[in-house]
C-alpha cells in the first residue's frame, strides 16, 4: 500500500471521528451553558440522522472495511439508533464497482495463468459490487456459464489499517466518554465476521453445506462451486438466473403467487436456523432470486453462521411462550437463547416480549416475526442498558426481519409456525 494511501485513510477516519464529536458534544455543552436539559430519546433523532450521513459519506469515500463496518452497524438495531440503521443499510446496494483492470491482476495471480486460458469469455462490466469484492459473468472453455467473484487488490492490508484506525478511535472515545457505548466488543465481533468473508474457500464450504441440506428439495437452488478455479480470493461458481425476489410483477407474469414465494422463503430459513443450526445470515433481496419454476436461488454465503446447540429449540419456546403469554416460559426462553441482565432481574425479558406483542398486527403472536416486532425488540434492548442480547440472536432476528420486509414488499405475510408445518 502506498504511504499516501495510508496517510489519507487514517486522516479520513480521524476527521470523521472529530465531526461526530462536534455533532454530539457541541449541543450538549451549549445547552448546559444555557441551563437547558440535555436532549433525550426522539429529540436526538435529527442529531443521529446528521451523524449517520457523515458516516455514510466516509464509507462511500473509503470503501473496504468502512463500508463493511457500516453494514455491520445496520445489523445491530439493538445498539444503534434507527437513523443509523435506515441510513447505513442502503450500503447493501450503493457500492460503486471498480474498473476491470483493477481486478484482472487478482484473477490472474490467483489462478496462475492468463484469463483467456481459463475463460472463453469474461465480461469486463461487473453485475454486482460489494465492499470486499465484485462479480463478473463469464464462460469456461467447456461451455459452462459462470459467475466470478473477485476480491479487491490490497483489501486485506487496507482492512488491517482501517481496523487499527477504528480501534484507536474507540480507545479515545472510551477514555473521554464517562458511560461509553461498548464499541470495542462490537468492533472485535465485526473483525471476526470480516475475516470469514475474506476467505472465499470458507464461503464455498458454507455454500456446499447448505446445498447438501437441500439436496432432496427441488425448490431450492444453491449454485455449484467450481473448486478447480476457486481460491481464497477468487470464487468461480455456476451462473444461475432468475427473477429478483421482490419483483412482484415479474413473479405474477410467470404465474407465480408471491404469497407462495414468501412462505417457501420462510420455510428455507426455518429449516436452516431451527433444523440444521447453520444458516445464511444475510437474506437481503440482492442475494435471492426465483426461477420460472418457483425455485428459490440462494446466493452469497460469506456471512454464514453456526448456531449454538439447542438454539432452534429456544426460538420455538420463545414463540410458544408468546402465543400462550406465559411469563415464566418467556423468561426461560430468553435465558436459553443467551439473553442476560446485569442485575439478574429477569422481569426485563417479559417487558421486551410484551412490547413485541404490542407491535404485532393483531396484538397477539400467531407465528409471525414481523419487521415491526423485531424492530421493537431491538428498541427495547437499546433503551434498557441492563439487558445484553447475544449476537447469534441479533443475526437471527435481523434475518427474520429481512424476510418479513421481503414479504411486505410482495404484499404477503411470513409465518414461522406455518413454515414449520404447524398450520
Task: Write the topology of this structure.
Layout (H helix, E strand, L loop, with lengths): L2 H31 L11 H18 L1 H10 L8 H7 L11 H12 L3 H4 E4 L5 E2 L3 E8 L4 E7 L3 H22 L6 H16 L1 H14 L6 E2 L12 E5 L4 E2 L3 H6 L4 H19 L1 E3 L7 E3 L5 E3 L5 E3 L4 H14 L2 H10 L3 E2 L5 H12 L12 H13 L3 E2 L2 H19 L6 H4 L4
Parallel strand pairs: 5-10
Antiparallel strand pairs: 1-3, 2-3, 3-4, 4-6, 7-9, 8-11, 9-10, 12-13
Comma- or semicolon-separated keywords:
single chain, 423 residues, alpha+beta, Phosphorylase Kinase, domain 1, 4-stranded mixed β-sheet, 17 helices, 13 strands, 11% strand, globular
Walk me through this protein's architecture.
- This protein is of the alpha+beta class and 423 residues long.
- The protein folds into 3 domains: 90 residues, no CATH class; 109 residues, Phosphorylase Kinase, domain 1 (2-Layer Sandwich); 183 residues, no CATH class.
- The protein contains 17 helices and 13 strands.
- The strands form 4 sheets. Strands 1, 2, 3, 4 and 6 form a 5-stranded antiparallel β-sheet that branches. It has a 4-stranded mixed β-sheet with strand order 5-10-9-7, covered by helices on one side. The protein has a two-stranded antiparallel sheet with strand order 8-11.
- Helix 1 runs antiparallel to helix 2 and helix 11 runs antiparallel to helix 16.
- The longest helix has 31 residues.
- It starts with a helix and ends with a helix.
- The mean pLDDT is 85.
